[in-house]
Amino acid sequence: MPMIVFLWTDVALYLLLVGVLLYVWRVRRSPTLRATWGRVARDTPAMCSAVVLLAFVLVGLLDSLHYRPRLPAAPDAPAGAAVAYAPAVKSVLDGLLDGTVLSRPEKTYSSPLASHQFTKETMLIDGKPVRDFPRLRSGGAHLTDPPSQTGPDILRRLGAGLAGGIAVALLGGALLSAALARRQGGFRHAARHIARGRTELPWRPMMITFGLLCLVVGAVAGLSSGYHVLGTDRTGNDVLWQSLKSIRTALVIGSLTTIAMLPPAIAFGIASGYFKGWVDDVIQYLYTTLTSIPGVLLVAACALMMQVYIDANPDLFTTSAARADLRLFLLCMILGLTGWAGLCRLLRAETLKLRELEYVQAARAFGVSHWRIMRRHLLPNVMHIVLITVVLEFSGLVLYEAVLSYLGIGVDPSMNSFGSMIDRARLEMSRDPMIWWNLLAAFTFMLALVLAANLFADAVRDAFDPRARRFKPASAPAAGGAA
C-alpha cells in the first residue's frame, strides 16, 4: 500500500467540494433557490460550459489525490525491515498517465507528433561524427522507418482514439436516456426527445458538447500512446502533461483565493453599511488605503516575505511537493486577504439600502440584537452578490496567477502552472526556428477554462441579480394563426 499524503491545498479543495455538495443539498430543499438555479440550468451556453468545467474539475480532483509509492524491499533486507517509500509525491492523475508517452521525458525540444529531436546534435555513426537530428527516446520510438511509417501510424492511432471517444459519447447518451426514461415515457421516447431538443433542460447541446469533448480526449489519448501530442519543452518534459498538471494550480488559485476573500469582505461590508458612523469611517479608510497600493507590489512584498519564511524553515517539509504546495496555499491566502475591497464596497452599498427597509427597522424596534439582525436578515439578502462575485472572480484570478508566475512571484518553480509555461515560452518565441507549441498549449487550456467559467458566470449573474436578468420577448404568432 502506498503512503497517502495530505497536502494543504488537497484538504482545502475537498473541503470546498463538501461545501458545494452541502449547498446543492440546501438548494434542493429551498424552492426559491431551486427556481433560481433552474434558470441557470435552462441557459444553453451556461450548461455547455458546465460540461467543460466539470471535465477540468475532474482532472483537478484526480491530481489532488497524492501518495508516495512503496519501494520494493532490498534483496538482503531482514523480514521485519521498515517499509520504505519513494521521496517523490505522485497523484492519481500521474498514475493514470504512467503508461503513456506523456510521462516519459526526452532530452530537449521536440515538435508535436515528431519522432526526431527538434535540435541537431553531434552523433557518432560508423565511427564518424555526424551532426543530425537524433531519434526521440519515447516519441515514435516504435517506428523502424519514421519517414514512411509516421503518417499511417498517426492516422491509425487517431482513428482508434476517435472510435473510443465515439463509444464513450454514445454510452453517455444511453445513460442519460435511461435516467430520463421514467419521465419521458420510456427509453426510446427519452432518446428521441433528447435528439430533437424537446426537453426542458438543454440536454441536446450538452450532449453535443460532451461528444465533442470525448472526441478530443479520445484523439489525444490515442496519439499519446506513441507520440508527444503537443511536443516537449527545453528540459524534455511533455507539454500536454504540463498543461494537465497546470489545471489543478489554476483551480486552486481561482477557488481558494475567492474563499479566502469572503470572510473579511462579508464581515466588513455588512458592518460598515449597518452601523455607519465611525465604524463605517474606519472600514472605508482601511479598504481605501488598501486599494491605493498597487496590487502587484503588495502581493509581491507579501510573497517575498512568505518565501523568506519557507527558506528559513526547511525542516518543516518532508518533501519538495509539500514545500511547493505550502507556497501555493499561502499565495492564495495573500491574494484573498489583499483583494477583498471590491466585494466589501458592493456589500456596504447593499447593506445601506437594506438597513432602511421595514423588516429591519421592525427588528431593531423590538430589541433584536445587532448580531442577529445581520445574521438573519442582512446576510441572506446579500448572498446573491457574494455568489455572483465568486463566479466572476474565478476567471480573473486564473489570469492573475499567470501574470504573477510570469513575473516570478507566483507559484513555486517546481510546480506546473500556466503562468510558468508562459514565462518559459517568452524566449522560445524569439528563436529561429520558432518554438510555438509551449505557448499555444498554455493559451488553449487557459482560453477553454476561462471562457467556460465566464459563460457560466454570466448565467449565474443573470439569474441571481434581478436588475441584470434578461427577459426574452415571446415570439410573434404566425400569420393566419389564432389570435
Task: Say how many strands there are.
Answer: 5
Strand content: under 5%
Q: Which H/E pattern describes the elements?
A: EHHHEEHEEHHHHHHHHHHHHH
CATH architecture of one domain: Orthogonal Bundle
Q: How many H/I helical runs?
A: 17
Global shape: globular
Structural class: mainly alpha
CATH topology of one domain: MetI-like fold
Backbone CA Rg: 27 Å
Average of the residue pLDDT scores: 84
Uncertain parts: 470-483
Distance between the termini: 73 Å
Side by side, the strands of the main sheet go: 1-2-3
How helical, in percent, are the residues? Answer: 55-70%
Largest sheet: 3 strands, antiparallel
Tell me, what is the CATH class of one domain? Mainly Alpha
Q: What's the CATH superfamily of one domain, by name? A: MetI-like
Keywords: Cell membrane, Membrane, Peptide transport, Protein transport, Transmembrane, Transmembrane helix, Transport
Membrane topology: Multi-pass membrane protein
Family: Belongs to the binding-protein-dependent transport system permease family.
Protein name: Oligopeptide ABC-transporter permease
